[in-house]
Amino acid sequence: MASNQPSLNTAKFTTSSTDLEQQSKLELETEEFDYSKRSQWLRAAVLGANDGLVSTASLMMGVGAVKQDVKAMILTGFAGLVAGACSMAIGEFVSVYSQLDIEVAQMKRDQKQHRGDIDGQRSEEEEKDQSLPNPMQAAAASALAFSVGALVPLLAASFIKEYKVRVGMVVGAVSLALLVFGWLGALLGKVPAFKSVVRVLVGGLLAMAITFGLTKLIGSSGL
């Protein structure tokens, strides 16, 4: 009896270790699944916010290069917000709807090939229905994120009459927002934060600088 006790303990320990490993694998797979499900709206939201921030700020900086009037900058930024939000929403809706059509067509082809397995087919259909892309969700997220991003330079430039101070406020506010958006996108997507932040910040500042410089050059040449 005494000789059998270590074997029983070893068996229990092995079983417990196996259960823990299986539970860990299951939790890991669940987390990975959640992040993959999140990628659709995350991509649309991050893209929309960055685009709204950079494009609106670049438009305002371009107009500010030749016109120092605060009203001109604000009207330009507001027009860019409305036009950009509509454009992003329509573009995202069409793009995601095309993806939806492709996946639905593939589901129909799979159903024809697996008509015999009714239970398996129903289970597979339910899983696919839950993972199908949502065009309206992607369009709304993109338009809303674009508007939020575009509001940053608009609010930064509002009520500031001094030209140099206004331009400095726009650049500072946009730079801070780029850092926040880059960090937030990295946090939600579980990717390295430093590379994401640097990429977003450098790209946004470069876009504003190029727009300001080229518009200033064209305006000073009298074209």
From TrEMBL:
Q: Which GO terms describe its cellular component?
A: membrane; vacuolar membrane
Q: What CDD domains does the annotation carry?
A: Nodulin-21
Principal subcellular localization: membrane
What subcellular compartments does it reside in?
Answer: Vacuole membrane
Topology within the bilayer: Multi-pass membrane protein
Q: What is an example of a GO molecular function annotated in this UniProt entry? A: iron ion sequestering activity
Pfam families, sorted: VIT1
- Asked whether the keyword Transcription is assigned, the reply is no
Spell out the Basic and acidic residues composition-biased ranges.
110-125
GO biological process entries: intracellular manganese ion homeostasis
| Keywords tagged on the record | Ion transport, Iron, Iron transport, Membrane, Transmembrane, Transmembrane helix, Transport, Vacuole
Q: Where is this region: Disordered?
A: 1-21, 110-132
| Alphabetized InterPro entries for the sequence | Ccc1_fam (IPR008217)
What reaction is this protein's catalytic activity?
Answer: Fe(2+)(in) = Fe(2+)(out)
Name the residues that span the membrane. 72-90, 138-160, 167-188, 200-219
Q: Does the keyword Protease apply?
A: no
> What is the similarity comment for this entry?
Belongs to the CCC1 family.
Q: What does this protein do?
A: Vacuolar Fe(2+) uptake transporter.
Q: What is this protein called?
A: Vacuolar iron transporter
Question: Source taxonomy lineage?
Answer: Eukaryota, Viridiplantae, Streptophyta, Embryophyta, Tracheophyta
